[in-house]
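seq:
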Amino acid sequence: MKRLILKKLVIISQKNEEARTITFDDTLTVITGDNPEGDTINRTGKSVVMKSIYHALGAKLKKYTTNWNSLQISTIITFTYNGDLYELYRDRDSFLLKYGEEIKFFPSISELKKFYVEFFEFYLKMPIKKDDENAVYAYPGAIFMPFYIDQDKGWSGSWDSFGDVFSGSWKSEILLYHMGVRTKEYYDLLDSKIEYDREQKDNKRQLKTYEAVIKKHTEKYKDYLDINLNTEDFADDILSLTDELNAQLVKKNEIKDELIKCFNEMKELEEVYSSAELVYDELLADADFVENELTEKEIVCPICGTVHQNNVENKFHLYSEVEQCEKVIQDYFVQKEKIEKKIQQQSEVLKESSDYIEKINEILNRKRENVTFQEVVVAEGSKSILVDMQNEQKELRNRYTYVDEQLASITKRQSAISRKGTFITKDYLTRLSVALQSLNVTDIDSKDLKKFKPSFSSGGNDLPCAILAQIFAIYSAAVKHSKTVCAPIVMDAIFQQEPAEAKIDAIWDYVTKNQPVESQLILSTTSIHDRKIKGKVISFTKEKGLLQTEDYQKEKDNIAVYRGLLLEELKKRDASDK
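struct:
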C-alpha cells in the first residue's frame, strides 16, 4: 500500500482575501479549542479545517459548514505520495496538480477522477444508478471513504461523510477493495461478466426469434418440405427455363438499344428542324424586302450589314436558300414519321413478353409423378432457406454455450479471488475484536464479529468507539494486504455522545497506543483533556477567527500564480470548445 502524507493545507477565502495555513505532523496532529489558560473555545473553525482536507483532494462532502459558500473557499494542499511531493490547487471544481516542473489541469472532478484511477491504483467501479448494468470508476469520496469521519454525518456508522459515494452494497465493496479482499483482477472479471451477460441476453432473444421463425416457416411450407423428388428428373425443364431466360435477356437488350437509337435520332431531327424553321422565316423576310422595298442598285442586309448588288444573280441565290430550307422542313416530317413507326414497332415487341410468361408457366406446370416443376422450385427454395436458418441457429447455440462456459469460468475465478480474501477478512475481524475489547465496547451484536459488515448495530457512546475500532482495523488490514492508497485518517470531533471521563481516557489510550503502523492521524477535539500528545497540537482560540489576512499575504504570490494558470487553462478550453 502506498502512503499519502499531508504536509500543508492552505484554506483561502478569495472573497475576503483571507487564508489559513496548516502544517501537519507526519504521524499525529491534534486540532483543539484549548487555549493556554485552560479554557476551551468553540466555533473556532476546527471543522472547516477537517472538512477542507479531503475537499481539497477532490471529494464531495455530505455536509459543509453554513458559511462555506459565502467564504468562496479554495484550497492548496501539499502532500507526498509514494515518496514524491505534489501540490494540488482547487478552485470550485477545477484543479491544478503540480509535480516538480509539471502542472496538470483538470477542469472537473470527473477528469480528476480519471487521473486518480491509475494514480491511486483504485480500479473499483460503481454503478451510475441502482441496478444499472453500466458502471463508472469511483469518485474521490470512495477512494478516501475509510479514512475520514465527519463531525456531522460520519459517526452514524453508515459511512456517510462523503456525498459522491453510492449507497447500498457498494459501501461494503469499497471497504473490501481497500483491504485487498477485492482486487483489480476481480473487477476486470466483473467487466467481462457484464459484457457476457449483456450478450447472453441478446443471444437468448435471438434464439427465441429463430425458433419462432423456423416454426412459422415450417408450417407455411409444410406441403413442400416433404417433396423429395430428385431435381435431375426435371433436367430438361431446367435447361428449357434457362434457355428461355437467356433468350429473353438478349431480346430485352436489343430492344433497349434500338429504342435508345430511335430517341437519339429523334432528338437530332428536332434540332435540325428547329434551326431550319428559324432560317426559313428570316429568308422569307429577306425575299419580301428585296422584291417590294428596294429600287437601289446596292442592298445592305438589315441583319448582318453586308452590302449586296441588287441584281438577278443575287436574287436567285436568295430564293435557292429559301427552297433548301423548305426541303429540310419537309424531310423532317418524313423522317419523324419513320422514327415514330420504329418506336411503335419496338413497343409492340415488348408486348410479346406475355408469350414468354406463358412459356415459363408451361415449363413450371410440367409434372413428374404428380409433382409440378413449380412445386419443386418452391420446395427447394423453402428447404434452402430453412437449412440456412437452422445453420445460423446452430452457430448461435454454439455461441450461447461458449458464453455460458465463459460466465461459469469468470464466476469460478471470482470465487477463487474471494476465497483468497477470506484470510484477509479473518485478519480484519481478529483486529476488530481486539480493538473493541480495548475500547470496552459491550453493546455489539456477535454476528458483527463473524463476517465482514460495513456497519454496526451498537448504540449510545459505544457506537463511536466501535467506528474508531473499525477504522483502525480496516487501515491495518489494508496496509498489510492492499495495493491502493493509504491516506491519512482524519476524524472530526473524536469524542461523541458526551462520554464519561473513563471513556475519554480509554479512547485517548487506544488512539495513542494503537495508531496503525505507518499511518498519519489527524484529529479534532474541543479539548485534549490535559493529555500530553506525542505529535503536533494546533490550538484555535479565537471564535470565528480561523481565516486571517496575514496568512493570505504570506501565500498571496503562490495563490496569484495558481489563479493565473487556472484562468489561462479555462480560456484555452473555452476557445477549443468553440
